[in-house]
């Protein structure tokens, strides 16, 4: 009787494992949530097929890094530290994520970027119009 219970438990476990391991195709979309605060780290473009990234010139020397805060409510907040006293200026808009596209709308200006990389530590996007790559870190 004990052997039958162990065997039945083993078969149920294998069945559940088989069902839970499906081969769903998510079209390359990452499952990491996009919400969070990201510090502007690097910008660049692709030259001769290779990424060329430099430290973001938008970050003013001596100030904190500028940032992008993507909130659960789909609000997007861009933080910009500037001036001699590193004053913070925040600009608020909205964002929409559709698969691996990220559309930011600030005022009446809207930009759409490909999400090149999204991990717990990095968001890398490439503007679909200009080709500019922007790297943010958490």
Automatic annotation (TrEMBL):
Residues 1-22 form the signal peptide. The keyword Phosphoprotein does not apply. Coiled coil: none annotated. Keywords: Signal. Residues 34-125 form the Lipocalin-like domain. It comes from the Bacteria. Pfam families: Lipocalin_4 (PF13648). The keyword S-adenosyl-L-methionine does not apply. This is Lipocalin-like domain-containing protein. It comes from Flavobacterium pectinovorum. The lineage of its organism: Bacteria, Pseudomonadati, Bacteroidota, Flavobacteriia, Flavobacteriales.
């Amino acid at each position: 009787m004990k052997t039958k219970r162990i065997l039945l438990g083993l078969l149920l476990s294998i069945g559940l494992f088989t069902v839970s391991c499906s081969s769903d195709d998510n079209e390359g979309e990452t499952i990491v949530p996009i919400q969070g605060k990201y510090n502007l780290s690097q910008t660049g473009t692709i030259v001769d097929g290779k990424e060329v990234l430099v430290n973001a010139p938008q970050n003013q020397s001596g100030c904190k890094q500028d940032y992008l805060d993507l909130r659960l409510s789909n609000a997007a907040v861009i933080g910009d530290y500037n001036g001699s006293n590193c004053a913070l200026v925040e600009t608020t808009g909205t964002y929409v994520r559709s698969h691996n596209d990220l559309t930011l709308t600030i005022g009446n200006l809207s930009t759409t970027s490909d999400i090149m990389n999204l991990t717990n530590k990095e968001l890398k996007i490439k503007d679909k119009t200009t080709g500019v790559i922007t790297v943010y870190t958490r």
